[in-house]
Amino acid sequence: MVIEGMLSILTPSTFSVMFLGVVIGIIFGSIPGLTSTMGVALCLPLTFGMSPLNGIALLIALYVGGTSGGLISAILLKIPGTPSSVATTFDGGPMADRGEASKALGVGIFYSFLGTIFSIAALWFIAPSLAKIALKFGPYEYFAICLFALTTIVGMVGDNILKGLSSALLGITFSLAGIASIGGAARFTFGIDDMENGFALLPVLIGLFAVSEIFTIAATGLKKEKNNIVDCKMKGFGFSFKEFKEQFVNMLRSAILGVGIGILPGIGGATSNIVAYSVAKQQSKHPEKFGTGCIDGIIACETSNNASIGGALIPLLTLGIPGDTVTAMILGGLTLHGIQPGPLLFKTSGVLVYGIFTAFLVSTFIMLIVEYGGLRVFVKILSVPKYILLPIIMIFCIVGTFGTNHRIFDVWTALIFGVIGYFLSRNKFPQAPIILGFVLGPIIEENLLRGMQYSSNNFFIFFTSPIAAVFLVLTVIVFIYSLFKEIMKSKNVRKS
């Protein structure tokens, strides 16, 4: 099964798809405001006409290229192309200012590659073992784990836990629209026939992350932009073997942090790069160098954010729970092809799973080659003004949402959620809990109802399962801790 899955990607069409995905991902990741999330959202409808392996390989390649591509603008423009490259600007920008842009780029690209390779190894060895354990899960366990995942993201995303909680509840509310899976009751349909099927995941994703971003940029006013691009001639990888040995512990620690944080649903590279940077600074013998242009910070950030890719795929493939917003879209790609991720996926579609693993590995090598070889081309793309890019992207959004199911209702859904996303972003409501709430809401509801039916409406039976009991207790602890932290923060603000 493993060998067959690995050989399944050795076709010209699959290689072409992965190469295209990596290139598009790097472009979207390197242009500030577009992000890899938007790139995956726009290309998701294209996978409908592909084979399942080619479709998922395209999304994986976009994910890999987009996450790594953010370092280009972070170093050359001091603007992170994606949230996962925020900490790269801290030391990448100063290095570029003093004429070491090529070294910063070389370090960032190479350690992005190493971080992704580490996460592939973790995915390869952890995911099958976790899937075997997950086969024993019932409604009690699934309910507890999904509730814990939702609570975790609410507490860790955003500066205000109430806003995070409101976003999650809003996502759950939107997921309830349509005919209930258990009981068959019509909810929030308002007499509209198209609402009986609820909101489709793809239009919601495109609306919240692509259309809302376009509205946000448009609201600030479109104008001609002139970016000062730093020259980036590079020799080799830009650093010595001695520096590689000195940074090995930093790299390994950051990779472990990236995978660990990536496994936590909804967190991803946006958090892992900041955490890894902070830990690297704390553990460094010369913390005063951080922020002045040292490779330590770039290595920590770029290793961790790419390591979170494999980490985010682990809960998606083994439990059907997306690790971040991009894997939520990959979940949409799987469902488009009638594939249900979860513990049975490794038994029913083992060839596909190991084909995806291999596509992940090949995309990583393509990313390394393309970023080094095409760096000067990607740098020129950074100078393309947004008033040219945004109208083209808006057309892609509309065509993409309509092309999936050929319903005008989906186009209206994307536009409406674009408006919702714009106002939420403007008022600093985090968007990640909305998507996690939208995806996990039906799973939580369905398993809660099933569990209550099995236990004759006795909720305390949920605690008889050791796994469920542990996660329910952790849910309470995380919620209380997040609430306590918010209260202490409010008190400190009032004192100051």
Structural account:
Strands 1-2 form a two-stranded antiparallel ribbon. The longest helix has 34 residues, at 101-134. Helix 4 (52-76) packs antiparallel against helix 6 and helix 18 crosses helix 19. The protein contains 21 helices and two strands. 72% of the residues lie in helices and 1% in strands. The protein has one domain (1-494).
Give the fraction of residues assigned to helices. over 70%
β-strand percent reads under 5%
Major sheet size, sense and barrel closure: 2 strands, antiparallel
Structural class: mainly alpha
Strand segment tally: 2
In round numbers, the mean pLDDT is 82
**Shape descriptor:** globular
How many DSSP H or I helices? 21
Low-confidence regions: none
**Rg, alpha carbons:** 22 Å
Distance between the termini: 62 Å
> What is the string of helix and strand elements?
HHHHHHHHEEHHHHHHHHHHHHH
Oligomer: single chain
- Total domains: 1
Strand order of the largest sheet: 1-2
Pfam families: TctA (PF01970)
Keywords: Membrane, Transmembrane, Transmembrane helix
Transmembrane segments: 15-44, 56-77, 104-127, 139-158, 164-186, 198-219, 255-280, 351-372, 384-402, 408-425, 432-449, 461-484
Protein name: DUF112 domain-containing protein
Output the keywords.
1% strand; mainly alpha; transmembrane; 72% helix; 496 residues; 21 helices
Question: How are the secondary structure elements laid out?
Answer:
Elements: H1 2-7, H2 12-30, H3 35-43, H4 52-76, H5 88-97, H6 101-134, H7 139-156, H8 161-175, E1 178-179, E2 186-187, H9 201-219, H10 241-246, H11 248-263, H12 269-283, H13 295-319, H14 325-336, H15 345-348, H16 350-373, H17 375-381, H18 386-405, H19 408-426, H20 432-454, H21 466-495
Antiparallel strand pairs: 1-2
Helix pairs in contact: 2-3, 2-4, 2-16, 3-4, 3-9, 3-14, 4-5, 4-6, 4-13, 4-14, 4-16, 5-6, 5-13, 6-11, 6-13, 6-16, 7-8, 7-20, 7-21, 8-20, 9-18, 9-19, 11-12, 11-13, 12-13, 18-19
